[in-house]
Amino acid sequence: MTDIAALAADLGYRAGWAAVRYAPESAARIVFDRAGGFAGRRNGGPDQLRRNLARVIGVADPADVPDELVADAVRSYARYWCEAFRLPAQDRAAAASTGTLPAADHARLDAAVSRGKGVVLALPHTGNWDMAGVWLVQHYGKFATVAERLEPESLFNRFVEYRESLGFEIFPLSGGEQPPFGVLADRLRAGGIVCLLGERDLARHGVPVTFFGERTRMPAGSARLAIETGAALFPAHHWFEEAPYSSMSVGEEIDVSGGVETATQALADAFAENIAAHPADWHMLQPLWEADWTDRQRARMNETGGAA
């Protein structure tokens, strides 16, 4: 990203947080929904999103992905940003009350937390993971997570401040005082909760998995943390219901006795099951599978031994 583009991005996000947070909720939701619908239908919608959704619904030709699904997916992504821009001005308890976790899943999470050995929640980029985090803070207190190092630094700081204002403890994925793995492990050994977005290998040190029948790589951090600390590892999911409501799930505990690659594959399988149930709420507009990587991305993967 050029310096000018990075500055423009920062100014755009700053304007969004400044303007949308105080706008009437109904008006803001209408504007974002219509903008998302338009973007989702214009020229068939984002090409990479369509390619990704083709894997999810099991069609070989991305052209066979229903246009309405693509439009719904972009509207869902627009809803994420509408809610993100409004969250800083919302009452946290009221925001958390719009999310529902089934009683059995809540009991599963309660039991793991009460054991005092730490909990790792791994989830894909679905629904509104920030809103899921607000729910978690309201029920269990602060949790730790990582943040991608964005450019410019002012934009990165803006996102860190935003999520810290929601009650999250944020550590940079790169460029921090120390690598995040050690401090996250410390939080788990103290009985805390760590939440990690788990299907994009931003650090390029992932392990190979099969995801919707195709090869890709996913971050190994969630499995490695659970193995090295003894924390419980769970797949989690968040998806949208009729605005402003949403639903969540915490799946069965992942068996990590088979090692990092086996546990990461189990997470990938859980992610796939949940994404397939709510395909429009998966916000994946980037190339994820190896078949979609550019030559440059492949070269970077070969250099690092991880994903592009």
Question: Any overview of this molecule?
Answer:
It is a single chain. This protein is α/β, with parallel strands linked by helices and 308 residues long. The chain has a domain at 92-304: Glycerol-3-phosphate (1)-acyltransferase. Helices cover 50% and strands 15% of the residues. The chain is built from 12 helices and 9 strands. The protein has helices at 3-20, 25-41, 47-57, 67-86, 92-96, 103-114, 129-140, 153-165, 180-189, 221-229, 260-277, 295-304, and strands at 99-100, 119-123, 143-147, 168-172, 193-197, 207-211, 214-218, 232-240, 246-250. The strands form 3 sheets. Strands 1-9-8-2-5 form a 5-stranded mixed beta sheet, sandwiched between helices. Helix 1 (3-20) packs across helix 4, helix 2 (25-41) packs antiparallel against helix 4 (67-86) and helix 10 packs across helix 11 (260-277). The model has no long low-confidence stretch (mean pLDDT 93).
Properties at a glance:
308 residues; alpha/beta; Glycerol-3-phosphate (1)-acyltransferase; 5-stranded mixed β-sheet; two-stranded parallel sheet; 12 helices; 9 strands; globular
List the helices and strands and how they pair.
Elements: H1 3-20, H2 25-41, H3 47-57, H4 67-86, H5 92-96, E1 99-100, H6 103-114, E2 119-123, H7 129-140, E3 143-147, H8 153-165, E4 168-172, H9 180-189, E5 193-197, E6 207-211, E7 214-218, H10 221-229, E8 232-240, E9 246-250, H11 260-277, H12 295-304
Parallel strand pairs: 1-9, 2-5, 2-8, 3-4
Antiparallel strand pairs: 6-7, 8-9
